[in-house]
Amino acid sequence: MGLLSDPVRRRALARLxxxxxxxxxxxxxxxxxAWFLALAFPPLTQRTYMSENAMGSTMVEEQFAGxxxxxxxARDFAAxxxxxxxxxxxxxxxxxxxVGLEVYTQTFSRKLxxxxxxxxxxxxxxxxxxxxxxxxxxxxxxxxxxxxxxxSDSTNSQAVGLLLALAAHFRGQxxxxxxxxxxxxxxxxxxxxxxxxxxxxxxxxxxxxAPLRGRAGAIQAAVALELSSDVVTSLxxxxxxxxxxxxxxxxxxxxxxxxxxxxxxCTLQGKLQPQDWASLDGPLQGLQTLLLxxxxxxxxxxxxxxxxxxxxRVEALTLxxxxxxxxxxxxxxxxxxxxEGMFRKLNHLLERxxxxxxxxxxxxxxxxxxxxxxMPAAGFLLLVLGLKALELWMQLHEAGVGPEEAGGTPGHVxxxxxxxxxxxxxxxAPLLISQAVGLALYILPVLSQHVAAQHFPVAEAxxxxxxxxxxxxxxxxxxxxxxxxxxxxxxxRGWMALKLVALIYLxxxxxxxxxxxxxxxxxxxxxxxxxxxxxxxxxPRPVYAVLLVLTSPAATLLGSLFLWRExxxxxxxxxxxxxxxxxxxxQGVLDHYAYGALLFPMVALGFYPCWLLFWNVLFWK
Amino acid sequence: xxxxxxxxxxxxxxxxxxxxxxxxxxxSKIEDQAEQLFRSGHTNNWAVLVCTSRFWFxxxxxxxxxxxxxxxxxxxIPDSHIVLMxxxxxxxxxxxxxxATVFSHKNMELNVYGDDVEVDYRSYEVTVENFxxxxxxxxxxxxxxxxxLLSDDRSNILIYMTGHGGNGFLKFQDSEEIxxxxxxxxxxxxxxxxxxxxxxxxxxxxxxxxMYERFYSPNIMALASSQVGEDSLSHQxxxxxGVHLMDRYTFYVLEFLEEINPASQNNMNDLFQxxxxxxxxxxxxxxxxxxxxxxxxxxxxxxxxxxxxxEITTETISLQLDSEIMEDRY
Lengths: 621, 330
Description:
- The complex is a heterodimer of chains A (about 625) and B (about 325).
- Chain A has about 625 residues and is α/β, with parallel strands linked by helices.
- In chain A, about 55% of the residues lie in helices and about 15% in strands.
- The longest helix of chain A is centred in the middle third of the chain and has 35 residues, at about 370-405.
C-alpha cells in the first residue's frame, strides 16, 4: 500500500512529523532570516550590467552649457512664485514658449478625505504646465518625460530653471526620435497623478482632472528632478514606487553609468557606494542599504513622482540633489550634462525597456539581487506556517483516530463527523467577527471623523488616527466577548481548527503579498510568523500575548520607523517616534485615498483580521 | 649521286626544322601574349554587397558595406554590375545628427553615403529569399534589371556580407537566418548554372569563418573576419553621432583598398595579411583550397575592380580593294 494510504505507515509518518516539527520550524525560520541577511554578500549580490543593446555605452558627447541660463530662469521663477503664492502659470507658459516648446496647461482639483497635516492642504486645486518638444523628423509615437514637482513646501525653483535651460538646449538638436515632454506640476504628487490620469484617460483615484489638450504618444521613460540649491554635492536616486513597484533596472544602470562618466557623486538611500566588496565592510554597508530599501518598498508610498509613473508601466526615476557639507560641489551644468546624456541614450531605444530585471533588491547603486535569489527567504518563512498547519492537521486527525484504537468508551459515537460539524460552526463566528472588525477599521475612521471631531477637542486628521488606534485596540478585547456568543462543545479541538484556518489564511496572504511586494511580505512574515506559530491557549499565556501584541502589524510599523531612522543615522527618541508613527498612520490612509496605495486596505482587511484570529486562539476557553 | 640526294634531304630537313622552331617560337610568343591577355580567365566583374542588419545601433554594418561599395566603384565596377542590399535606415534615421550622411571614420572625415549611392534592395527587401534568388538567378520576370545578377561563366563575382552572425548562421534583419549549408548550396547552384568563373566571398561578422566551412564548389576563395568562437569587434566609436562607425576588419580592409588603383599588382596574399590579430583582436581567416589558381597570382583588381585589358597592336594590316566584290555589292 502507498505511504499515505497505509494507516500504519501514516501513523508513523504523523508521529515523525509531530516529533520533528518544532526543530524544523525553528530551523526554517532561522534559514529564512539568515538567507535574507546573506543577500548583501557577494555571491548572492551581483554587479549590475546594461542589458539593453540599443542603449549601448555612454558614448555620447554632452554639450549642455546653459548653467547661467538655468540660474536666471530659477531666479525669475522663485521671484514670481513668491509674489503669487502659487505656481506662476502665466510666467511658465511664456518661458516655455520663448524656449520653443508647444505649451499646454491642465487644471485639477481634489478634496482629500481629511486635511493633510504634513502638507497643510485639504481642498486642493492647481494647474500643471507642460511643454512638448516635437521630434523633428519622426512621427509622435513615443515620448520621454522630464518632470519637476513643485509643492508649497519645496519650491524646487532650481530644478525648474534647469528644466527650462535643458529644454532650450534640446530644442536646438535635430537628433530626437521621440517627443520630449517637460512637465511642471503643482502640489507635488497630486499634480503628477492628475496629469498621468488625464494622459492615459483613466480615473483610478477620484481626482477631478481636466482632459489634456496636447499629447505626445506612449511614454517610454520619465525622469523626475528635485533640486533645492544651485550647487549639489551629490545626487540621490529613488527607485521605490507606489505599492513597492520598481522601474526596470536598466534605467538605474543608465543613471549609474552617466554618474561614473561625469564623475558625479551618486548615492542610493543616502548612502555612498561601498568600494570594497571582498572584505566585510562593503557587504555590511550593502546590508544597511538593503534594509533601507526593504523598509521603503514595504511602506508602499510613492517616494517621488516616479512612483506614480510606474503604475502605467512607464520606467521612471527621481533624482534629488543633495547639498551637504562636502568640499567638492557640482553646478547645474554637471547635472544638466548627466540628464542630457541619459535622454540621448533613451532616445536610441526602439522598444520599451524590457531586457533587464523588473523585480530586484539593491544593495548598492552598482549591485543588485535578482528575484530568483531573494525569494527563497520568504519561502523559508512561509514553510514554518505550512509545517505548523500540517502538525495541527495531523493532531486533529490523530485525535479522531485515537479513541477507536483505544477501544472507545461504549456508546461513544466516533467523534470525527460531529466534531467537524461543531468545529465548522465554531469557526465561522470568529472569522466573521474578525473580518467585521477589519472592515470597521477600514471604513469607520474616515467616515466618522466629523462625529469624533464634534465630541472630542481634536482636529479631523487626529480624529481619524485616534479612531484607527481605538478600533485596533478594541479588537484586543474581542475574545472575552465572542465566547458569550458562541457555544463551544469540543473545546480542545476547536482552537486547533481555528488556528489551522488562521495559519492557512496568513500563509496565503503573505504568499500573495510577497509575490507583488516582496519587502512587505517578508517584513510581515518575519514578525508575524513566530507569534502565529507559537499562539496556543495552553502554555504561558501572558508571554504569548505580549509576543503577539509586539508583532501585530501596527507594532511592526512602529518598529520599522525606529529601524529606518536608526539606519539613516538619525535615531528617534520615544516621543518623536510616537509622533512620527501617528503621522505615518494618517499618511498611509491619505495615500490610499489620494493615490491608491494598498498598504492600508491590505493591513486593515487582510492582516489585522488574521492577527485577530490568532488573538482569539490565544484566549480560547 | 645518292650522297648528294641524301645531303639535299638532310639540308631540307634541317631547314624545315629551323623553320618549324622559328614558327613554334613565334606561335608560342603569340600564345603567351594571348595567355597574358586572358590570364585570369574572366571578362567581366560583378559585386554583391549585403548588409543584413537594420536599426540605429547597427550603423557600423551599413558603413562597412558602403565603404566596400565605394572602393569597388572607384576601381571600376559600375552600378549596373553591383547588387547592393542595405536596410538603408541610417542616413534618414531621426536619430542621425547629420542627416543624409553615413560616416565611416570618426570626426566625420569620410561620408560614404554621398550623392551617387544606388541601393538595389533596401529596407525590408533584404531577406534570405531575395538574396538567394539574386545569387541563383531564379527571379520573377518582373524584377527590374538593376536587381538582377546577370553574370555568366566568365564573370568574377565579389560577395561581401556583414551583420550579426553566429556559428554556422548569419542573421538577416532580426527576423530570419541563413545557414552556411544554404549558402554553400546556393554557390553550387551558381556553379552548375555556370554563373561565375571565380568567386571571392568576404564576411565580417562574429564567428565568420563558420560561414565558409561548408563550401564545396570549385573556384571559390573565402575570407572571414574571425574564427569560430571569436567575436568581431567594432571600431571608431563616435560620441557626436553616438554609435560605433565601423567594424575593425572592414576598417583595415578599407585602408588597404584605398592604396589600390586599377593598375595595382597587389595580389591576394596581401589581402590575407590585412588586419592581423594585434589590430583586429579576432583572428581573420581565409580558405583557398577550392580555388584553382595560386593566390599569389590572383590580383586584387581581379575581384575588386573591373579592369579592361587593352592591347596596342603595332602591326598594320593593309586592306586591298577588290573590284569584283565591289561590283557585286552594287
